[in-house]
Amino acid sequence: MSPPKTPRKPASGNGNGKAKKLVGLVELLYSQMEKGEIPSLDVATRTKQNIEYSESSGVWVYGDATSSRSAKTARGALQLLKTTSVVEFLKHQLEVDKSSTLRELYYISENWEDAKFPDQNESDRLIEDLEILVELQREQFHIRSEESGASILGPLEIRERTRRGPKKIHCEDDVGESGYTIPTQVDNIEFLRHDARMVVAIETGGMYDRLVENGFHDDNDAILVHLKGQPSRGTKRLLKRLHGELNLPILVFTDGDPWSYRIFASVAYGSIKGAHLSEYLATPGAKFIGIQPSDIVAYKLPSDKLTDQDIQALKAELTDPRFDTPYWKKEIQLQMDLGRKSEQQSLAKYGLDYVTDTYLPERLQALGALKK
Q: How many whole angstroms separate alpha carbon 179 and alpha carbon 238?
């Protein structure tokens, strides 16, 4: 097995430094009030109009546009109260070395009287604000999402740092056919060795199981990653590390609809609402091997009629800078002309082995990822 290019040290657990950065926001507000100023915080505007391409990192990041959280209005003052309440909670959480989920944070706020959140969407957005303001990922101040259940299977040996100590795992020999479950904090994983030539990231569970059952990973020295729809941060971070540290190509295999194209875009370029994390999570070298609108014609695939929501999503993608390439404009326009969409599993029209014996080899050969 070949070793990775460079070993990676586990992420630091410097809770005091992170707490200091969070508390610095509150100190800024107090400083503004001491000067007789109306307290406020400026946060990057999270819209597609405010993302721009970074030449240095090859991903889409936020531009200079900001929106203000200001005590000038009652609504703004309440938002700042909620911000300071969350900072106080996170500071305590770091000091006692505990963690909580986004859902738990929402319920914890029930005890905060005026500062409690009416719904989880608001508390989630505030956590995103804090990530931007203090330039830390939420995992670094011990906030995590619910486990995604995404998994990885293939010729890769890792060492995971757990609360019970380091644990060495081979992601094929030491796990069942469902694979190794990807943890929330992927930077606690060290890559030891691998025999892989590529990583195939798969949108749906049915297609992941098909590739496993057909032995695609064995026949092609591939690491398979089940994305489980829109991938979690941990999954995207793992893909970025597999590409950057092991120099493995990342190939994203999805359905052929606008929502699946956004799955690819979030892996390759970053998401619009998470553009502050693009340089940490996105893999600009990722390639799309999902069902293309042109495949619906070329392979005569079974298809469904586009819904009104699908059509609106496709129109939005035509103005999305992440899809501003000749390839994507041509494919998206073709799909709108066809008025149809197809799933990965529509390839079963030609038999259960067709996807691994014909479709994927043809796509991979066209990309130069597989020799003829």
A: 14
Give the pair of three-digit tokens for residue 268: 């390759």
CB-based burial, 299-313: b 16+ in 10 Å, e otherwise: bebebeebeeebeeb
In terms of domains, do 128 and 161 share one? no
Q: What is the pTM of this model?
A: 0.82
Is 30 annotated in the active site?
A: no
**Helices 258-268, 326-338: inter-axial angle, 10-degree rounding:** 170
- Half-sphere exposure (Cβ direction) of 275: Cα atoms closer than 13 Å: 23
Q: Which range marks the domain in which residue 96 is found?
A: 15-144
pLDDT mean over 97-113: 92
Going from the C-alpha of 93 to that of each of 101, 102, 143, 298, the distances in angstroms are: 12, 13, 9, 55
CA gap 298, 276 in Å, rounded: 39
First to last CA, the chain: 24
Position 7 in a domain: no
pLDDT tens digit sequence for 311-347: 999 999 999 888 999 999 999 999 999 999 999 999 9
- Three-state secondary-structure class, residue 326: helix
**Residues 347-370: pLDDT tens digits?**
999 999 999 999 999 999 998 877
Residues forming beta bridges with residue 198, ordered by sequence position: 222
Catalytic residue selected from 107, 280, 350, 354: 107
Other beta carbons within 10 angstroms of residue 220's beta carbon come to 20
> pLDDT band at 147, cuts 50/70/90?
low
> Are residue 103 and residue 195 in the same domain, yes or no?
no
Residues 6+ apart with CB under 8 A from 194: 1, 2, 4, 154, 155, 156, 157, 223, 246, 248
Number of separate domains in the chain: 2
